[in-house]
Design a protein that fits this description.
With 75 residues, the chain is mainly α. It is built from three helices and no strands. The termini are far apart. The mean pLDDT is 93.
Length: 75
């Protein structure tokens, strides 16, 4: 049974969009998006928003790492 998503959590989920990224970076970002939505749909409480904040930071670093790798490969 899905829990009702708190507005703050719903707002945080918007940070996990990946459709604006190039295809190679979408592949890196997509698993974070999927996990964020799974967490938000199955858990509740302020801890979920905090967990999403940490996951978002991790996603950003993973995308940066993939972008750097891609840039180095094209140099």
């Amino acid at each position: 049974m899905a829990t009702q998503i708190h507005p703050a959590t719903a707002a945080m989920l918007r940070n996990f969009r990946y459709d604006h990224l190039p295809p190679a970076l979408q592949e890196v970002s997509r698993p974070f998006h999927d996990l964020a939505h799974e967490l938000a749909e199955t858990l509740s409480g302020p801890e979920v928003t905090k967990a999403l904040d940490s996951l978002w930071e991790s996603k950003n670093w993973a995308v940066v790492a993939a972008s750097n790798k891609e840039r180095e490969a094209n140099s």
